[in-house]
Structures are given as C-alpha cells and as structure tokens.
Amino acid sequence: MNVLYILCSTRSVGGASKAFLTLVSGMVEKGVTPFVVTPDKGDMFNILRDKGIFVTAINLRSRIYPNFSSVKDRLFFFPRILCRIFIEWRASRQIFHICKKHKINLIHANVSILSCGFYASRKLHIPHIVHVREYMDERSGFHYFPNKRAYYKTLNTKNSYMICITRGIQEFLHLTDKNSKVVYDGIEPHINKQHSEFPQGSFFLFAGRMEPNKNPLQVVKAFHIFCQRHPENHMTLKLAGAEEDIVYMANLKDFIRQNKLSDKVQFLGIRKDIRRLMLDARALIVSSTFEGFGLCLPEAMLSKCLTIGKDTTGTKEQFDNGVKLFGEEIGLRYQTTEELADRMEELWPDIPERYEAMKERAYSAVKKMYSKESNVNNIYSFYQNICVNGTY
Prior knowledge:
The protein has helices spanning 15-29, 43-50, 71-75, 77-102, 116-124, 148-155, 167-172, 216-229, 246-258, 274-280, 296-302, 313-326, 337-346, 354-369, 372-389; strands at residues 2-6, 33-38, 54-57, 106-109, 128-132, 160-164, 180-182, 203-207, 236-240, 265-269, 283-286, 307-310, 332-334. It is an alpha/beta fold. It has a seven-stranded parallel beta sheet with strand order 3-2-1-4-5-6-7, with helices on both faces. Strands 10-9-8-11-12-13 form a six-stranded parallel beta sheet, with helices on both faces.
C-alpha cells in the first residue's frame, strides 16, 4: 500500500509532528510505503530523509484566515488570502502529479487545516483521510477559510474519512463511526535518564506555544498568586515553547514585569529536551482551553512527572480515561486561575506522598492506552477497511 502523507509544519517538537513520526515508523513496519510532502526543508524533512523515507518539499498554506492582530496584519490581510488560495491551488496540482507517478492508494493529511490533498484526491478518485487534531472553532483561535460550512462539506464528501485524536473532537464535529474513527496518538516509551540543567523539583513547567489557545498567561497569573501566598518560596516557572504571537508575548511579558516576576519566570524557547525537563519538574501544567489531545501530557506521565491540567476537552478526556481504568485520578485538575494556584500550593514545599501513587497510575495508564502499537494497528486497520475491504 502506497500512502502519501501531508504535513503542515516541519517543526519536530510539536505534538502533531511527534505523533506522525511514531505513526510513520510503525507503518513502515507494517509494510506500508510512505511518501511525505512537507511545506519546507526544515527539521522534519531532514529527519524523514535520514530514515530513508521519500520526502519532498512543496510550498503549502493552511486553509485558515491569516492573523488580524497587528496593523501590518490588517494591511496585508486580503493580499495574503489571495496568495494562500494560489499557493494551495498550485500545491494541489503538484500533489496530483506525485500521486500519479508513485501510484498512491491513499492520501493522509496529518492535520485538518490542509485542503490541497483533498482536491488532489478528488481528481484521482482515491480516498483522503484528515487527521483531526484540533477544535476548529473561533474560541480555539482557528478561523477556517472560507467558512465552517465549506469545512464541514469537505468532511462529508464521498471518499473522505477522518481520524479524530479524541472522542471529544469526534463529537464536536458531529461525526459518526460511519466515516470516522477515534484513535489516540501513540507515545514512544523512551525516557532520557539524564536530568536537565535545573535543580530537580525546583520549578513548574509549561510546554507549548506562547499563544492564547495554549494560555500560558493563566499559568503565569496563577504562579503570581502562589508567590503572593508564599513570598519565601524558592520555586520558579519555566515556559518552553515557540514565541510566535508578538502581541500575546508583549502582554505576557508586561504582566511579568509589572508584577516583578522577572527573576522567577524564565522563557526557554523551543526545546528538544522536553522529556528531560519533565524528569526534573515539580509538575507539568497544561492550561489549554481547547486542547485537541495534548501530547505533552502523556509524555510527562511517561516521565513520571506529576501533571496539572485544565479540566476541559482533550486534557479532561485523558484524565477521565485514567479514572475509568483505575477508579482514581491520574493528574490534578483545575478550572480557574485561583484553582491552578491552589494546585501549585498543594505541591509546595514538597510533593505529598499520596501523589507518588498518582504518578505511578498515570505512567501505567499511558502505557496501556497510548501505545505505539495500538495507534499503528488501529490506523492500519482503518486503511485496510477503506482501500481493501471497502467497508467504510
């Protein structure tokens, strides 16, 4: 079986990229021949090429509206839309020719905000799978181009199929098992035994992009409340992730400066040693309001790092799965900023003994529910049912 995968980013540290690398290595073991299209020749391009996988770079654009937050964004809004339409049209033609040349049986887009593969698949009359990893909603920061109606139409077209990374996303999109399947991302079990350069247990960790959807500002605000309650505390807050939203970053840094937290909050930027940091963190905090799955949450659990997560969407589903398995919590939940400060306070000055058992349950839950084998087997079965058995 020849499968063409389309990626929207070559950044190797993102959850979608990590999940894809786990998937594609498993598919090779299953006998699938992967062909991969990337938007540029960044990290993922080089990683895939070094693995001996066919990879080619094609200029791609996501089918979402451009940013509209700065004066520059407003001035170039309409030219950017026209540019994106043209680039996607050209990418669709290039993908069409790749599929014809290599006799592709199936196109699989690694995220749901790409459409070039969908239009190529229609001309080729082959199945197209969208890996839905995000909540396509204004509240999550996504504005699908040209509108939601067009987006839902592509989901319900003949020969279109969806893999949803959580049950919550499937329900949010009103999908059924008729042409969609829920498959949790697979997590590689490898853990780096080396510790980070920071003293063990001396910091809380946030790992994610610095943007409204990931909500690091709430973490900083909660940490400020915690510091006000315990001015003598020695804890720090480490923020690891890309700093792409200029306006949001300015607001975040203004809050830190105004509340005299500059010596307590540290920006680490993009890190490739997140699991090593997790080994030494007091806890990982996941603050996203609309998290699709949140790969860093089970990664932390595999590192036996305590997790604190906002009790919504994908984070809630993961915590709920743990409760179904063990009848007890596998992480600490919160809803409000004050509650997050309370969770931090519970872990100071030391982690209570009862949370050691929680970390062990979390580790076992991830090993059981989010294994590479389960992820690959489920998706491979989906491929077969679509292409061979014709049961979908």
